[in-house]
Automatic annotation (TrEMBL):
Protein's UniProt name: GntR family transcriptional regulator
Gene3D superfamilies named among the record's database cross-references: GntR ligand-binding domain-like, Winged helix-like DNA-binding domain superfamily/Winged helix DNA-binding domain
MF terms (GO), sorted A to Z: DNA binding; DNA-binding transcription factor activity
InterPro entries in alphabetical order: GntR_C, TF_FadR/GntR_C, Tscrpt_reg_HTH_GntR, WH-like_DNA-bd_sf, WH_DNA-bd_sf
Pfam families: FCD, GntR
Region (Disordered) location: 1-28
Domain HTH gntR-type: 26-93
Annotated keywords: DNA-binding, Transcription, Transcription regulation
Compositionally biased residues, Low complexity: 1-14
Organism field: Ideonella livida
């Protein structure tokens, strides 16, 4: 009787003990990879969950091509893995993903954020030329132009009739910050009352999970930028249910300007655990009201929610006739800081 054939063995995985770290991508891929990594951390999806490229593209507002390239890079970091004809799936838990970072060097996002940092720190004036920025940071003209054009699209800068660029004083002052909250108090409650409003169950489940993660220790552990992103995602998810692109675009524009300011000042933000906890609880209550069909009450509470935060953030004297929620809100010390709103 012939001896049984030896069982086939899978080849051993190549050792990565001494493998050099993968080279960081540049340009749009680096930007999308970083945003995608932040999105995966916030989602707290379990290891092994399938990642749908189109859903990720919709969430980040880009096409599928940069999403695919970003996923391919994240695969080199071990964050995701791919299978033939089955796409990508998560290869790490949320806590492991937090340990990863993407060194994007002089990517478009890095150039853009450095210009914003310089402006908010008054390292450059209200008017600036492309040549000045090129000399200051040894960037190419194309890098500078892409960043300035993005600032122009977001309403933060505009090209002068002659030469040079002019920065707009948006959300750089307490007055501008206060005005942004007044604007949100107009559009966000109105969105909840739109005839086309329809609850997006999947989106509500996602943002509810994020709010619970914040209450379950995320307020202490997450960075200010992560807390800000979670808050922006929550409010945009509510407004998106109105299916009115003009309202959603307006809110996204305001949030983009707030995000820029947050990136500049997150290391100096005041963290009031009691207030942030209350805001998360209010977010969850709004979800419950909307799912119960109580849109009028939800709109009222959302406006009150934003008004209370406006008073706290801008150190504005509350009106004489205050609501119970406003009266119970502790005042923060006066100062120039603009904090992170969930």
């Amino acid at each position: 009787m012939p001896a049984p054939a030896p069982s086939a063995q899978l080849p051993a995985a190549p050792s990565t003990e001494h493998a050099p770290p993968p080279e960081a991508p540049g340009g749009l891929t680096a930007t999308v990879a970083q945003r995608l990594l932040e999105q995966l951390v916030r989602s707290a999806a379990p290891r092994g969950e399938r990642l749908k490229e189109q859903a990720l593209a919709d969430a980040l507002g880009v096409s599928r091509s940069p999403i695919r390239k970003a996923l391919q890079y994240l695969e080199t970091l071990g964050a995701v893995r791919s299978e033939p004809n089955r796409g990508f799936q998560l290869a790490m838990e949320s806590a492991e993903l937090r340990t990863l970072s993407i060194d994007d060097g002089d990517s478009d996002e890095a150039v853009y954020m450095r210009i914003v940092e310089d402006r908010l720190a008054n390292a450059i004036g209200e008017e600036v030329s492309e040549a000045e920025l090129m000399d200051r940071h040894s960037w190419s003209r194309l890098q500078v132009q892409r960043a300035l054009n993005r600032l122009a699209r977001e309403g933060l800068a505009e090209r002068k009739p002659g030469r040079g660029w002019l920065f707009r004083p948006v959300l750089q002052t307490v007055e501008a910050h206060r005005a942004s909250y007044r604007f949100r108090m107009i559009i966000e409650p109105a969105a909840l009352l739109e005839p086309s409003f329809k609850v997006d169950k999947a989106a509500f489940d996602r943002v509810r999970r994020t709010q619970h993660q914040l209450l379950d220790g995320g307020i202490e552990r997450w960075t200010a930028a992560e807390r800000f992103a979670a808050g922006a995602e929550f409010h945009e998810a509510l407004v998106a249910c109105a299916h009115n692109p003009f309202i959603l675009d307006a809110l996204r524009s305001v949030n983009q300007q707030r995000r820029i300011l947050e990136y500049h000042s997150h290391t100096h933000a005041v963290q009031d655990h009691t207030r942030l906890t209350r805001q998360c609880q209010e977010h969850l209550a709004l979800l419950d009201l909307l799912e119960a069909g109580e849109r009028m009450e939800a709109a009222h509470q959302l406006r009150q929610h934003l008004d209370v935060v406006r008073v706290i953030k801008t150190h504005e004297e509350p009106p004489t006739l205050t609501t119970p929620a406003t009266a119970a809100t502790p005042a923060l010390p006066a100062g120039p800081r603009i904090e992170v709103h969930l």
